[in-house]
Amino acid sequence: MTTFWSLWITIITIATFVGVAALLVWCSRDTMGVAEGEDMGHEYDGIREINNPLPKWWSYMFWGTLVFGAVYLVLYPGLGSFKGVLGWQSSDQTVRSLQESNASIANAHSEQRLDQYARELDAAEAEFGETFKRIAYDASGNNLRPITDIAQDEEALKVGQRLFLQNCASVMLPMRVASWVTLTWQTVHGCMAVKQKPSKPLSWKAVLA
Predict the structure, then answer these.
(1) Contact indicator for 52, 37 with CB cutoff of 8 Å
(2) 178, 181, 185, 186: CA torsion to nearest 10
(3) pTM for the full model?
(4) Does position 40 have pLDDT exceeding 50, yes or no?
């Protein structure tokens, strides 16, 4: 992020906090010249305005959100290039290749940085690493299996099917309305694939019903 955009974001964010706090203070003061609880002299459709202050619980909650926001911006990124006291980041945005990404993750581990992406990879490795290693590597655990062998592995097919149903089906199945294809799970020439079969287009009446 350039210095200009960092300052732009920081100034606007701080100005917004200050402006909202000033507005809350101003609205909390009685400057109407009418005693509290008295009629303001305004009427609309039989409804009259009374000079009542803002509810205390509402004001306290408003101040609480401002304090929470200020603490958050101190601890986490949010003010331009400021990384926050905790040093947390979702991922390293400077990487441009797989090698740089691997090096960045290794550095995050060695420096014990709060890199969310690196931590999620660690969690995924702890939960799924053995399963994927058993599927992807041969008995020695050192060499990757050919994709044609993996495609004949019943366990690999079940894992792939579950991944497809969990992550892809909900997005791809609605495409039937637009592209008029039926998506099915099957093995084609020893490889896992999604088969597209022509189908009759759905009528809009059926879609909107």
Answers:
(1) yes
(2) -150
(3) 0.57
(4) yes
